[in-house]
Design brief:
binds ligand C2E; alpha/beta; 24 strands; binds magnesium ion; TIM Barrel; 47% helix; Alpha-Beta Plaits; 3 domains; Rossmann fold; 574 residues; five-stranded parallel β-sheet
């Protein structure tokens, strides 16, 4: 309802008084286009609700109630008030004045003392302060960029809905929405593009919602939606629809920026005891949606409950573990197939938490999730490069392979960190290989290429990990500053059960060689597989049969012996 009607509303039961106010207003220059009058509160309330005036002059005593009861009524009907209200009283009485202001009146005037100038001044002042207050209220509760509800108001509404849901078992749903790789858009195209993207997201959200739903921007690229009175099935349908609606190609300068959301859905009734716990459910579902490959929604379910608890524990323990350097590094040899000598060593992170080994993939997820990438990588780069430097004293040609995380192309700091650690040592950059998985690379091929080029220009070797699982074209590969392909271990591990694997390995190896790339066979668990890798023409091999990952602080030759699993295959290149 807009209040820009430029109408003044006078509520007064005494016609002589109304006439008096009208005459006074005639004496001054005011902006009102119309002046409406009413003699009862009921009539005034109805008409003002339909078309809110710019200001209202309200007599203190009316036939159907006092000004206080009118103010009270407006407060219950309109959360943010309807318009500024100036009460006109018969006599000056400070106590009454204070009460009126407390009930929401903007100002008050004494009938007998009224003159035209004073009346106009009070009206203008009331309108100005009322509008200012509304702006301030808006700023406190709404996001200035998108005009969506902000976190404060959102939490308030969520609490109300959660309490009502608990009392009356009314179903509702909460969605957490995150724009995939928003940071990358900001970094690569600038904040203007980021802002434009956030606004488009907000518009799409509003276009897909009912008026009783709430859409909020919680901060950064985090959005949320509250859907009252909705069944679980319908909430799923809505989430699915929203993923499609928020998958956009935004026109930007001469091209497009493609964006997509990840959405986490939590439905009430749930086992959550508090609204905070309920929020964690939506948050965890969002985390799952992102891990499942982004651009999709995921709903919280029972199976996630135990996992949430474990992950919460891990997530809160991680910063301290990192600070106290309690993560460990395992090293696994990569063998030159023609000589069976160790060519390089891959560093693989390890963490034992309460007697359980946490998978490296989960560690990296948590590191990224908790934005600990900088300290984690500083620790990883310094320790592994120091270890390489120690080993190079007995094996000068040894190289080190480091895995880089999925967000490599969105984290400008990461590569600089590696380069700066390298610059502080005497290690030849050619002896460092970074491994980037194919799947992650293909999500942002152009950006990844650019970042990898910085490393390659410095002399660092580039290897594409888990090759065969992503969808890179050979044409793209040829354009990359890449030196090695690591054929995904599954191809070798299933070699005997899947006939097509041999053809795939053969094709990858032949094409790679034509492009001048070396090939590493992963997952060599038996002597037969090593034999097969040799016959396929793979240049290097890695696997449990050649040496499992070992946590070690030993001399290089001792490490080689320790990491050797079977036979006398492994020869240290000393
Ligand atoms: P990846 O880079 O492909 O590493 C090889 C994985 O294969 C390692 O698992 C290794 O233990 C396993 N492996 C080696 N030989 C064999 C074999 O013969 N048979 C079988 N079944 N497995 C074998 P791990 O250590 O669990 O690491 C899993 C993944 O986690 C790595 O795959 C890598 O993508 C990631 N990762 C590990 N450490 C780091 C790290 O420091 N940073 C990043 N970003 N990712 C890491
Ligand atoms: Mg690797
Ligand atoms: Mg691999």
């Amino acid at each position: 309802m807009s209040s820009n009607s430029k109408t003044l509303f006078i509520v007064e039961d005494n016609p002589a008084d109304t006439l008096h106010y009208l005459r006074l207003l005639d004496e001054v220059k005011h902006d009102f286009k119309t002046i409406e009058t009413s003699t009862t509160l009921a009539d005034a309330c109805e008409r003002m609700s339909q078309q809110p005036p710019l200001c209202c002059l309200l007599d203190y005593n009316l036939p159907d109630g006092s000004a206080l009861s009118f103010l009270e009524l407006l407060k219950t009907k309109f959360e943010n008030g309807l318009c500024p209200i100036i009460v006109i009283t018969g006599q000056e009485d400070t106590e009454t004045a204070v009460k009126l202001m407390q009930h929401g009146a903007q100002d008050y005037l004494v009938k007998q003392k009224l003159d035209a100038e004073q009346l106009l001044r009070v009206i203008q002042h009331s309108i100005q302060t009322w509008q200012l207050q509304r702006q301030l209220n808006h700023l406190a509760l709404y996001d200035p960029l998108t005009s969506l509800v902000n976190r404060t108001l959102f939490i308030d509404r969520l609490i109300q809905m959660f309490e009502a849901g608990k009392r009356n078992l009314r179903p509702f749903a909460l969605l957490y929405i995150d724009i995939d790789y928003f940071k990358a858009v900001n970094d690569n195209y600038g904040h203007e593009a980021g802002d434009c993207m956030l606004k488009s997201m907000a518009e799409q959200l509003l276009a897909n919602m009912r008026s009783t739903d709430t859409a909020a921007r919680l901060g950064g690229d985090e959005f949320s939606v509250l859907l009252p009175d909705i069944s679980e099935a319908k909430a799923h349908h809505f989430s699915h629809k929203l993923v499609q609606a928020l998958t956009l190609d935004l026109p930007w300068k001469d091209g497009f920026i493609s964006i997509a959301p990840s959405i986490g859905l939590a439905c009430y009734p749930s086992r959550a005891d508090s609204y905070q716990e309920f929020m964690r459910e939506a948050d965890f579902a969002l985390y799952r949606a992102k891990n499942n490959g982004r651009g999709q929604y995921s709903a919280f379910n029972k199976a996630m409950e135990t996992e949430t608890r474990q992950l919460t524990q891990l997530s809160s323990a991680l910063p301290k573990v990192l600070l106290n350097q309690r993560l460990q590094i395992a090293y696994q040899p990569i063998i030159d197939v023609s000589t069976l000598a160790v060519d390089s060593i891959e560093a693989l992170v390890r963490w034992k938490f309460k007697q359980n080994w946490i998978s490296p993939e989960k560690i990296i997820e948590l590191v990224l999730e908790r934005r600990l990438s900088e300290s984690f990588h500083q620790w990883l780069f310094e320790n592994t490069i120091q270890q390489l430097s120690d080993w190079q004293r007995s094996a000068p040609d040894l190289s080190l392979a480091l895995n880089l995380p999925a967000n490599i192309c969105h984290d400008a700091k990461l590569l600089n960190q590696l380069l700066s650690v390298l610059k502080d040592t005497s290690i030849d950059p050619q002896k460092i290989t970074v491994e980037v998985t194919e799947t992650h690379m293909m999500q942002y091929p152009d950006e990844t290429k650019l970042r990898l080029k910085t490393l390659a220009d410095f002399g660092v070797q580039i290897s594409i990990d888990d090759f065969g699982t992503g969808y890179s074209s050979m044409q793209y590969l040829a354009s990359l500053p890449c030196d090695t392909l690591k054929i995904d271990r599954q191809f070798f591990m299933d070699l005997n059960t899947n006939e097509r694997n041999a053809q795939i390995i053969e094709a990858i190896t032949a094409l790679s060689h034509r492009l001048g790339l070396k090939v590493i066979a992963e997952g060599i668990e038996t002597a037969e597989l090593l034999q097969a890798a040799t016959e396929f023409g793979c240049d290097y091999a890695q696997g449990y049969w050649l040496g499992a990952p070992v946590i070690t602080q030993q001399e290089f030759s001792a490490f080689c012996v320790e990491s050797k699993r079977q036979g006398d295959r492994l020869i240290a290149k000393v």
